[in-house]
Amino acid sequence: MKERLKGIESEALSAIASAGNRDAVETARIKYVGRKGLITEILKKMDEIPPEEKPEIGRLVNEAKSKITNALEERLKSLSAGVGPDSGHKIDITLPGSKRAIGRVHPITKTIDEICDIFISLGFRIVEGPEIETEYYNFEALNIPLEHPSRDAFDTFYLKSDSNQKPATRNQKFLLRSHTSPVQARFMEKNKPPFSIVIPGKVFRPDAADASHSFMFHQVEGLAVGGGIRFSDLKGALTNFARRMFGEDTKMRFRPSFFPFTEPSAEVDISCVICRNQKPVTSNQKPITSNQKKCSVCGGKGWLEIMGAGMVNPKVFKNVGYDPNKVAGFAFGMGVERIAMLKYGIDDIRLFFENDLRFLRQF
Ligand code: DAH
């Protein structure tokens, strides 16, 4: 019996010493001193031991049990050293904690949200469309003729025509959309007026990168169609937008222009956000104050172009199956990077795409 006891004791002590974690210590506890453990079994069999040996065996069993119990406790302590209030290690609560970086919204996303929020408050809703587009929607549906410069390979990213997917409906080339306007046609084909939508998204053009060009940038397109929509509705919506985006004292200018998908068309300018166009200049755009002469943002003109706009061309309505005699609408399209650069005073478009945290953290 003595031998057996010694054997159990040394086996238990080495099992505890090699226990690598709390679970292993607990397994050892159950095996040796648990309710059905080996030591407990011996204690239960004390009756069978001859009376003269009982005191001695009893003492040995109790010694073995307390050695094993102590060893279990010690092992648990050393496993949790450094953790918890009674580990014996002091915690220096004055040490700076390890910082967790919190992400934030990218300035472009933030600007898109701001633009869309303003139009949502005017009753518009957000619609999106594909970045890989067909030639039909990017150009033809919008009345952009074959000879238009934007259809040139230098102005549009065409995808290889040996692509497995052929455009499902119209057998034409795929390309990366060069503007968000094709979503106008896609939406009108599937929906009936009246509606007002804004279309945010990425667009692509094979431009060499410099301070004001990027091969990918963002636009927000707008389209409102219904009975009796007039140019004054367009002016009202865009003036409201510009004042909320750039400040209540922002002045607006609509210059006659040309886009194949609108008629009449306009380029929309706001008074310069830097020199604020203190004295409106004459139509030949010559600077008239020394203040404007110095302005590097508007080049002294006092005006900044922020978007193209116009009344939807009846040909576009025909292309999507609307009756141009029954509906009218206005459309506009703006570059998000340009809006953000003007609003936040950023002078290089590349800053948006370089992921430099020193820049991004400022928004
Ligand atoms: N799609 C034009 C561009 O990328 C911008 C534009 C001009 C959109 C006039 C419009 C519009 O909806 O009416 O240059």
Concise account of the structure shown:
The protein is built from 12 helices and 10 strands.
Give a written overview of the molecule.
- The protein is an alpha+beta fold and 363 residues long.
- 36% of the residues lie in helices and 18% in strands.
- The protein folds into two domains: 80 residues; 254 residues, BirA Bifunctional Protein, domain 2.
- It is built from twelve helices and ten strands.
- Helix 1 runs antiparallel to helix 2, helix 2 runs antiparallel to helix 4 and helix 5 packs across helix 8.
- It is elongated and about 120 Å long.
- The mean pLDDT is 90.
- 3,4-dihydroxyphenylalanine binds next to strand 9 and strand 10.
Q: How is the topology of this model organized?
A:
Blueprint: H1 2-17, H2 22-33, H3 38-44, H4 54-79, H5 107-121, E1 125-126, E2 132-134, H6 135-138, E3 157-158, E4 174-176, H7 182-190, E5 195-204, E6 216-226, H8 231-246, E7 252-259, E8 262-271, H9 290-294, E9 303-312, H10 314-319, E10 328-335, H11 336-344, H12 357-360
Parallel strand pairs: 1-5
Antiparallel strand pairs: 2-4, 3-4, 5-6, 6-10, 7-8, 8-9, 9-10
Helix pairs in contact: 1-2, 1-4, 2-4, 5-8, 5-11
The structure holds 3,4-dihydroxyphenylalanine.
What fraction of the residues are assigned to beta strands by DSSP? Answer: 15-25%
What is the spatial order of strands in the main beta sheet? 1-5-6-10-9-8-7
Q: What small molecules accompany the polymer chains?
A: 3,4-dihydroxyphenylalanine
- Cα Rg: 39 Å
Could you estimate the helical fraction of the residues in percent? 25-40%
By CATH reckoning, the class of the largest domain would read: Alpha Beta
Main β-sheet description: 7 strands, mixed
Count every beta strand, where a strand is a DSSP E run of 2 or more residues.
Answer: 10
Give me the CATH architecture of the largest domain, please. Answer: 2-Layer Sandwich
Looking at the structure, what is the overall shape? elongated
